[in-house]
Fold:
Amino acid sequence: MLEILSEIDKFLKSTHEYANIVTIKEKRDKMAKKASNTDSIIQKITSWKVIIAIQIIASLVLVALFFKLGALPMKYTFVIIAVVLLLCVGTFFLMKPSENEKSVKNIVGKVVSLLLSVVLLMGSLYIAKGNSVLDKISGANTQTTRMVVVALKDSKYDELSDLKNQTIEVNNAVDEENMKKAITELNKAESSIKTNDVKDFDKLANDLYSGKTPAILVNQSYYAVFEANHENFESETKEIWHYDITQEIKDISKNVDVTESLFTIYISGIDTSGPVSTVSRSDVNMLVTVNPKTKQILMTSIPRDYYVTLANKGKKDKLTHAGLAGVENSVKTIENFLNIDVNYYARVNFTSLVTMVDALGGITVDSPVAFTTMHGNYHIVKGSNNLNGQQALGFVRERYGLANGDNDRVKNQQRVLTAMLKKAMSPKIITNYNSILNSIAGSFETNMSSSEITSLIQMQLDDMASWDIHQIQLSGRGTSMTGGAYMPNNKLYYMIPNDESVSYCSSLIKKMMNGEKITIKE
Structure:
């Protein structure tokens, strides 16, 4: 009996060992199968068919983005397509195995194809980014009103919480709708702050300076009003809270084929801490009239203090004050004043000048006189000056160190813009296209469409023509007087237009509109 039990025990042990062996074998077979499947997947992924497919897709994406951009002339686009096609064909023949996929030739072909795919995708991202920036700066159709709580710079009030249970002054008589919105948002941010309505801007500023009110809530664009009696209002105060109100505005562009027909752009230069769409007075007012057929450009600068009839008021005031009602009001005011059509506008913040000049690799500007700039203390020599962005900003801002003040400043603004145009019209734009666009993102906007901008770039790249650029400035006589539309009781400096100058500038623009070539008399 014992022997029988012993035999049964041996049998069971052998069966158990066999089962273990079977289990181990099954596991080994499964691992081998899994490894085999993995190798199969890797082989499929790294096969020449997959790799060439990736390159073809990357190539198609790049070509599609080039077509969407529309800035390159077709002859250049076809060259790019041909190069991309040749690269695909070349790597195809390099990779396609004659015997196996492990040959040196095949492996080299795969590496080259993958590297080309990476380069193509990086190029696609570069172009897509340029397209994105172009879309942001073009087709402008909004304006921003910035409402700010302002305190004296040397006061103890640095943020809204410092004004708890205080009463600040406002002026509800002007811009009533936006003021109501701003007060509502102010109360959300700090409910304990109360407001007291003051009907007069002079009293508002005087109460702030005298300490009668700890702070005031105003439309930032009305700083110009305060500066009538407090010249350094902006530098003597600080913003402790702001609320931006963005509104859609009517499209006032007068579209033309910019590669075939003459057009005029109004350039408004502002200097504000808010978005470039912020409603603000315009410190630079320039018309750029372009005839793409005759390759002539006429820059016409209008002094900011020019005494003109404002379109929204029907009364005379400084041209810079037209911007207080939005850029479309500045455009309409200039159209009425010169009896011309303005097709487009562009708004530029001074901060964009620095980055744009630097993106261009600097500019060369000829100065008729030597002077030292107040901004940056840069020494400008008589003759040729190589300027970076900050130096260019100092150059265009200077007026106190120049014999004719603001008249000389607008001439320098034209000199800088001319230098920038010449640099941008050179082949350098091809390599710096993205950098230039990125430099102006957020500080430049225009109601030209992106397709109109790229059409101009395409035209220039196609013929690389040299342009005949002329500059002219409206002149006048400076005087101090009361009666302006916005501040009728304040004595302000105005420039009374010289009728002969106005007539001459207007006639030059109209000559260009008639397709005539112009010359500028000294």
